Amino acid sequence: MLRMATGQVGGTRSKNFMQRNKIYFVGIGGIGMSALAQLFLHQGKTVTGSDRDESPVTAMLAKKGIPVSIGHEQRNIPADVELLIYSDAVPADNRERVRAREMNIPQTSYFEALGEVSKSMRTIAVAGTHGKTTTTAMLAAILKAAGKEPTAIVGSLVTDWGSNFLPGQNDLLVVEACEYRDHLLELLPEMLVITNIELDHTDFFPSLSALQSTFRVAAERVPKGGVIVTTPAEVNIAPILGRVTAAIVDYTRVDVPTLSQIGEFNKMNARAAKAAAQAAFPDISDDVTDTALRAFKGSWRRFEYKGETPHGAAVYDDYAHHPTAARKTIEAAREKFPQKKITVVFHPHLYSRTKDLFDDFVDALATADRILLAPIYAAREKDEGLVSSDMLAKAIAKKNKNVVSLPDFDAIRRELLESSAKKDLIITMGAGDIYKVAEQVTEE
């Protein structure tokens, strides 16, 4: 295994997280927050937290023995809490954060906390616009099968583990890294996997070159003696590698077995995972990697089968929220189910992404047989009236007339139940809570 000295990211700050044993998470239902909470629980710390709503993640945490309060009330914070960790979605004027300041409880963000934790561990970070969740999970599955006992933090609930956290040794961390707001730069990995680079998070990155700059800094930080696993000839990646000192491994040269996951993009994810595992541990054989990849069952919201409608239409749910991911998911579904009529129920995520990638969304979604659009999921943004699902539907209609924008999830559910037949394949798609529609129409 490649080794490097542990470093400090972002200057000399040190929050001594490992010495704090009673930790409260605000926004604990977030996919990264919940994984970090489980890691601390695994290390013997006392962990509690809160979230705005109940979800499959909060239910999973409760089963693992982590108390979760629903709603952000000042009284939620135990008096003996030593550290508060907050999600980036939680503002400074959140009532619990205000109360923590009154109680003189130190606060830090999830990504700062993750960076601090990773300092004491050999870290393999998986980044990229698409595929990083599946690649991280596959990589962790390979290392687990090889007996390397990785600790892993993944951006989804992995079917094989029933969690987004894999408990392992305290000296090896496999972590999904997010480029948004330069969070990737909180980490200083000895191995960096870059699956691909494409413009996204346009509310932060004004251009592809700005996004590439973040990846360039991350790549150049990988030390000499470290490894970057990527596609070095790819047009968006080649420019960021010019000054790196780490070894570069081209994952496209790796062969992988037949997978249970659909699509060429998942084969690419598997190649990246296999290449990273064998670069980190050269003693891992093809037999071990390929057996683990064949057995990998996937994760929550990655073309996840949900069931059938009362009329027999098959329903899947997928996290795709970028035009490229949407198009590739539709292509893979059509290849897997050539006789099916594909209905995509798309929940646009963020006004900025929808506006800035508008034409690409039109082209991608128009490839489905039928498109139902939910209102844009605002998340952290305000509606400035510059884009809407109605506008998206009108543009798609110029390429595919079988499109409609509906006012809410209830209307979508009714439409699916009334108009879907056994010949149909329904894919709910998006980064918001559109998965609830898939669950509702299969429970009728």
Q: Which helices and strands occur, and which strands form pairs?
A:
Blueprint: E1 22-26, H1 31-42, E2 46-51, H2 56-63, E3 68-70, E4 83-86, H3 95-102, E5 107-109, H4 110-118, E6 122-127, H5 132-145, E7 151-158, E8 163-166, E9 172-176, E10 191-194, H6 208-221, E11 227-230, E12 247-250, H7 264-280, H8 286-295, E13 304-308, E14 314-318, H9 323-336, E15 341-346, H10 351-356, H11 358-365, E16 370-373, H12 389-397, E17 403-405, H13 409-419, E18 424-429, H14 435-441
Parallel strand pairs: 1-2, 1-4, 2-3, 4-5, 6-9, 6-10, 7-9, 10-11, 11-12, 14-18, 15-16, 15-18, 16-17
Antiparallel strand pairs: 7-8, 13-14
Helix pairs in contact: 5-7, 5-8, 9-11, 11-12, 13-14
Q: What does this 3D model show about the protein?
A:
- This protein is α/β, with parallel strands linked by helices and 444 residues long.
- The termini are far apart.
- It has three domains: 18-110, Rossmann fold (3-Layer(aba) Sandwich), CATH 3.40.50.720; 121-295, Mur-like, catalytic domain (UDP-N-acetylmuramoyl-L-alanine:D-glutamate ligase), CATH 3.40.1190.10; 304-441, Mur ligase, C-terminal domain (Protein-Tyrosine Phosphatase, Chain A, Alpha-Beta Complex), CATH 3.90.190.
- The protein is 33% helix and 19% strand.
- α5 (132-145) packs across α7 (264-280) and α11 (358-365) packs across α12.
- The model is unreliable at 4-14 (pLDDT under 50).
- The protein has helices spanning 31-42, 56-63, 95-102, 110-118, 132-145, 208-221, 264-280, 286-295, 323-336, 351-356, 358-365, 389-397, 409-419, 435-441; strands spanning 22-26, 46-51, 68-70, 83-86, 107-109, 122-127, 151-158, 163-166, 172-176, 191-194, 227-230, 247-250, 304-308, 314-318, 341-346, 370-373, 403-405, 424-429.
- α1 (31-42) links the parallel β1 and β2.
